[in-house]
UniProtKB/TrEMBL annotation:
Gene Ontology molecular function, alphabetical: 7S RNA binding; GTP binding; GTPase activity
Catalyzed reactions per annotation: GTP + H2O = GDP + phosphate + H(+)
Source organism, top-level taxon: Bacteria
This protein's record includes keyword RNA-binding: yes
The EC number(s) this enzyme carries: 3.6.5.4
Protein name as annotated: Signal recognition particle protein
Compartment list: Cell inner membrane; Cytoplasm
Domain SRP54-type proteins GTP-binding: 270-283
Entry's free-text remark on domains: Composed of three domains: the N-terminal N domain, which is responsible for interactions with the ribosome, the central G domain, which binds GTP, and the C-terminal M domain, which binds the RNA and the signal sequence of the RNC.
Amino acid sequence: MFDSLSDRLGGVFDGLRGRGALREQDVRDAMREVRIALLEADVALPVVRRFIDAVTERAIGADVLKSVTPGQQVIKIVSDELVEMLGGEETVGLDLEAKPPVVIMMVGLQGSGKTTSTAKLAKFIREKHGKKAMMASLDVNRPAAQEQLKVLGEQIDCLTLPIVQGQQPVDIARRAVESAKLQAIDVLLLDTAGRLHVDEALMAEMKAVSAISAPQEVLLVVDSLTGQDAVNVAKSFTDEVPLTGVILTRMDGDARGGAALSMRHVTGKPIKFAGTGEKLDALEAFHPKRVADRILG
Ligand code: GDP
């Protein structure tokens, strides 16, 4: 994760660290290299600009350049701003405190890892929050999508809503909420249908399901490997449905990190979880500070 970005930044910092004195020009030279590293990592241009401006403004302050360890101070500023870029100091967790069944609606494009993430999250909620979860697949487009969720449910020992062939998503959502109430379920996860592209039919379906189920959380699942596309998809969804957060999948294979680094500022939505593998326990709560530390090595 973030390996290539981490290597590039490491090189820049080696040039700064341990120097007794820094001139303004040294900072500007270092920031030029950081800028290239971020662009190569596929971070969105406005986000890169904002980052470089913020770091430069703070770093060329007299207090920093005249301090005993100017290089270290610049690196600390980069670290602070990186945390900010990733979403700030605070980790934004799930809001599960409403009256049960709390509904979590999972949305996203086909192949993003939505169904897998639904099962991962159900497992996470049971293990980390101690809540009873149930899952329901509303994906009537892709053959076997409902079966896939059922099989995953069996693997993690989580209830799934029985499949009724021919039922439409809104009706499945209604039935799922009713069933969750009857079974005293704490958290109901709705795995909505994916599509190849963001289109009107998809958005209309999301809105109808949302109206029926009143979700506490609407989580968008996007594939980090698609870089800026992931951010653009998130932007399109943000304009249509009230997202409460993002799950970035395939972070295990993402050496660049552009989606993770751009998401918050481009969409205004927090990344809540990172998918880090195919296994059903490969889901991590997203902590900006820890991720920044990982990038800075
Ligand atoms: P959906 O069409 O969005 O529901 O996608 P699926 O959940 O079926 O996932 C598609 C493929 O991506 C499956 O083979 C998953 O095992 C894989 N996958 C999902 N999340 C991750 C992840 O975080 N890391 C890796 N390496 N693979 C993942």
